[in-house]
Amino acid sequence: MMVCRLNKSLYGLKQAPWALYSRFAMFLVTLGFTEAKSDTSLFLYRRGDETAYLLLYVEDIVLTASSQHML
User: Fold this and answer.
1) How much is the pTM?
2) Which residues pair with 63 in a beta bridge?
3) Residue 61 counted as domain residue
4) Per-residue pLDDT tens for 41-58?
5) Total of domains in the chain
6) Which domain holds residue 50?
């Protein structure tokens, strides 16, 4: 399990959703995910023939993959 620590509180600021998204997106890229061209909230992780999909919507994360061990 990965946890991100914020250096300052973002809650309540009008730019908070974008700031959280951009920070989390950068974190996913460091893990090897790529942002989908069709949807900026969809991230793909490919290893060989297997693929994992991560969808970020507001504060919810949906993760699915082509095999159990990719989860």
Assistant:
1) 0.77
2) 54
3) yes
4) 999 999 999 999 999 987
5) 1
6) 35-71
